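Please go through the protein record below and see whether the fold suits the sequence. Record follows.
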Amino acid sequence: MFTTKILGSESDDHAEVIKAVAMIEAIVQLQEPWNEQTLNDLLTQDSISLMVVSAIGSDETVGYCLYQVIFEQAEILRIATHPNNQRQGIASQIFANLNTVLMNDQVESLLLEVRADNMPAIALYEQQGFAVIHKRKGYYQQSYQPAVDALIMQHVYR
């Protein structure tokens, strides 16, 4: 079982949660994972929030979603589940809670960007009601590898 919460800046475990999120970032992000400093810097902005999923009983952070809300539009900046905890419904739990928060805030649409070759993520996002609205050709580039397109996906609430 897992519990989901939005990290408050005054929470006692703020530093530990940020450290855990940075550790998951380092494992799952193929290019340029965000470190603790970057995450802390982002969270100083009023428009950016961090939703975290923890294992009940151990309080171990197993997933997160860093997102930004500007007026009636939101964007997922990062979303991930620790590899040891994937395929347990954590991402679906994040989306369910995030959708509730965003609808309560009268957000009209939610955007995200995904690598065009990340088929498991694309399937999850489509299952959550997202559709591709734009493609950035050759957006992801690594040395000695072919460039990969970025897909911009959107979930509309209204």
In short: The radius of gyration is 15 Å.
